[in-house]
Amino acid sequence: MPSTVEKLSPSRAKITIEVPFAELKPSVDKAYKEIASQVNIPGFRAGKVPPLVIDQRFGREMVLQQAINDALPELYSKAVTENELNPLGEPEIEVTKLEDNQLVEFTAELDVRPDIELPDLSDVKVEVDTLEVSDEAVDEQIKVLRERFASVREVERPAAEGDVIVVDLVGSMNGEELEEATAKDISYKLGAGGMIDGLDEAVTGLSAGESAEFNSELVGGSLRGERADIKVTVTKVQEQDLPELDDEFAQMVSEFETVEEMRADLADNLLRQARLEQAATARDKVLEEIIAKIDIDVPEKLLANEIEMRHQQITQQLAQAGLTLDQYLEQSDEEEQTAEEFWADIDARAKDALKAQILLDSVADDREVGVDQNDLTQLLLRKAQQSGTSPEQEAQHMMEHNHMAEWMAEIRRGKALALVVETATVVDTDGNEIDLEKLQSDGSYADPAELADAEAEGDDEDAAEEAAAAEVTTDEAAAEETDEAK
Fold first, then answer.
1. For a Cys-Cys bond, which of 55, 152, 206, 275 suits 210, CB 3.0-4.6 Å?
2. CB-side exposure of 379: number of CA atoms within 13 Å?
3. 232, 183 contact by CB (below 8 A)
4. What is the dihedral of CA 273, 274, 279, 284, to 10 degrees?
5. What is the arrangement of strands in the sheet containing 92-99, beginning at the earlier edge strand?
């Protein structure tokens, strides 16, 4: 099956494929059988209609069209493999020549992964923030624990920050009460935030039974974003009693005997979390640095599809939250943006994401990165943990929705990224070099002896596989010699 490739651009190719009719014959025979089983012609049993009768009744063209449609996917895939192309997205296929009993010619235009010249990854150097776990951060963790186990008691005094108060809210517009802006027995901690603007200021200093009025923007319901008059009535003022920070408390809330041991464990947890965040930042920066060094031609159609998908996802999420884009931007804690700037940023991120995929796929090919069953198992475990399901459910979802190829590509890119980051130099702002190769998934560092054992075990497995392959080859050679002797 001869085929030729024409490069239309660095990321677009056209394959012209000639198929001798002999290669199409199995699909032609299959088409005749399928049509024969579906039609009912007097004088012929079901499935026994001769090809000549089918040609007379329905036309040879219909049979050939069905045969070509059946054969095209495999023929296209074979041509892609033979020409060592890396398709991105679906091809545009056109049958350009059809000579019955002679040959079929078709063309396939497709986006392909562009060839890129990888820079020397050892020259890549990025800087990340120095790790720091302050006493204040540990104190905040302990404060959260104490508040979780705190008790409350009702007090007869004005409400102050830190109190747990219970209030009734009545919203109105132009003197008309709004049912969806009215609520009773709302309990919250004064000063914690998360309620409508102006509420904390209105209730601070009020005692049980007292009321205040203020104007604010509604944060939920069909009137979200509209301003309304709010009347708030305090029904209870409660003071929190925090448990004493002593060894007894440490034993109650943790596995440790003393406060000092508990503090040390909390500090270690914060440090491990900070390491993981630092590693994620390092990976992003290394990828950004490499992408900035090379020119990657992103296929236009692929980029357009990616941008459209991201726009749809964001629009759906905003609709589900009952927000317009302008409302979301107003409430966002990020740098102030217009709608045009927001979408432009989304489009730029989509392009960078595709560039990253192309880069990592190239690295994976260059380094011959493979994916095994253990890699897939680990991915299923992570997805199950993130979504609160079981690995079995994730595996079933993968098979039902044909995610296997997509998830395998995700694993392969992750392994390629790890290789890239390990080759690059990562330092913190104090100039200390960070060895991310030793970082474990829980934020701890692997023991050097354990790494050495793991490498030795991997070498042993490789040696075993090579020995097994050699043994199979020897057995095959011996079998061939026996056959020749016979």
1. 206
2. 20
3. no
4. 110
5. 3-9, 12-20, 103-111, 92-99
Domains contained in the chain, CATH given: 3-111 (3.30.70.1050), 151-241 (3.10.50.40), 276-438 (1.10.3120.10)
Tokens coding 222: 């069909």
Count Cα neighbours of 396 within 13 Å in the Cβ-side half-sphere: 5
User: 3-state class of 101 per DSSP?
Assistant: coil
Whose CA is closest to 177, among 231, 235, 234, 233?
231
Beta-sheet pairing, 425-428 with 151-154: unpaired
Distance CA 287, CA 413 (A): 12
Report residue 61: phi and psi, to 5°.
-60, -40
Burial string for 196-215 (b: 16+ CB within 10 Å, else e) reads beebbebbbebebeeebeee
CA distance 230 to 218: 9
d(CA 456, CA 450): 10
Contacts of 175 (CB under 8 A, 6+ apart): none
**How confident is the prediction along the chain (486 residues), in pLDDT tens digits per residue?**
688 999 999 899 999 999 898 888 899 989 888 888 888 888 787 778 888 888 888 888 898 999 999 999 999 999 999 999 999 888 999 999 988 888 889 999 999 999 888 888 889 999 999 999 999 999 999 999 998 999 999 999 999 999 999 999 999 998 888 888 888 999 989 988 878 889 999 999 999 999 999 999 887 777 777 889 999 999 999 999 999 999 999 999 999 999 999 999 999 999 999 999 999 999 999 999 999 888 899 999 899 999 999 999 999 998 887 788 888 888 776 677 889 999 999 999 999 999 999 999 999 998 899 999 999 999 999 899 888 899 899 999 999 988 888 899 999 999 999 999 988 999 999 999 988 888 888 888 887 665 555 555 555 555 544 444 444 444 544 444 444 443
Report which of 414, 420, 435 is spatially closest to residue 128, judged by C-alpha positions: 435
Which residue reads 């080759």 in tokens?
A: 423
